[in-house]
Amino acid sequence: MNELVLANTAVTTRELPYAEALALGAMAFFSEKYGDVVRVVQMGPSVELCGGTHVRSTGQIGTFRFSGQTGVAAGVRRIEAVTGTGALRAVRVLEQRLVQVAETLKAQPEHLVRRVEQLLEERQRLEARLAEALKSGGGSPAVGQVMEVDGVQLTIAETTTEDRDEAGQIADRFREGKRSAVLVLFGTTGRGAIHVTLTDDLVSAGRTAADLVNRIAAVSGGRGGGRPHFASAGAGDPGKLAAARAATPGLVSAWLANRPVPEGVGA
Question: Is this prediction's pTM over 0.85?
Answer without folding.
Answer: no
